[in-house]
Design goal:
The complex is a heterodimer of chains A (118) and B (113).
Chain A lengths: L3 E4 L2 E5 L4 E7 L7 E6 L6 E6 L5 E4 L2 E6 L4 E6 L8 E7 L14 E2 L3 E6 L1
Parallel strand pairs in A: 2-11
Antiparallel strand pairs in A: 1-3, 3-8, 4-5, 4-9, 6-7, 7-8, 9-10, 9-11
Chain B lengths: L3 E4 L2 E4 L5 E7 L5 E7 L6 E7 L2 E4 L7 E4 L5 E6 L8 E8 L8 E2 L3 E5 L1
Parallel strand pairs in B: 2-11
Antiparallel strand pairs in B: 1-3, 3-8, 4-5, 4-9, 5-6, 7-8, 9-10, 9-11
Classes of the chains: A mainly beta (118), B mainly beta (113).
Amino acid sequence: QQQVKQSPQSLIVQKGGISIINCAYENTAFDYFPWYQQFPGKGPALLIAIRPDVSEKKEGRFTISFNKSAKQFSLHIMDSQPGDSATYFCAASMPPYYSGGGADGLTFGKGTHLIIQP
Amino acid sequence: DAMVIQNPRYQVTQFGKPVTLSCSQTLNHNVMYWYQQKSSQAPKLLFHYYDKDFNNEADTPDNFQSRRPNTSFCFLDIRSPGLGDAAMYLCATSRDLEYNEQFFGPGTRLTVL
């Protein structure tokens, strides 16, 4: 129930196209859903995050779509650029009171290796 | 710029030789986390500190310990590194437990010979 399932494992998109990465979760206690971008040899960097009270959040070229009933959320990268080539992780976390007073940190999906072809 | 700093960036140790990894933050965040990330895998939470309160994940081996002497610093101690402990170790911080926006450091790449 703690798992977050991410797909696809790898994705190749042409420059200017839309990159779409999907995640699904089981535990309805999750209430925070961030996306992280990681370049080789670097730590993950927070891209965008959403809470279940909204269905969509947009920041620049990045959009999260959230479907609470389906327990799914996705990242859309519009006008994908070669500089977007990286590994993307979705994640989820629960509120601290749910886990007995201490947050368990982030549960990550397995990652998507995105390549944007020029 | 406020940030999360990890030292060293690369650490080589020998099998069984204790090693300590360091993390510092200028964000003045209450929570500090340690994650282990093996090659081509997702980060996995080892433990975290909320202020001085230590919270260990159930499946974190006893071989891994942590210290947080003050708000700014947190250390990861690996008492007897095995070959399977070779990984990237990531430190992250968040303002508090309710607001779980986590900021990651660049990581320390640990090699065990």
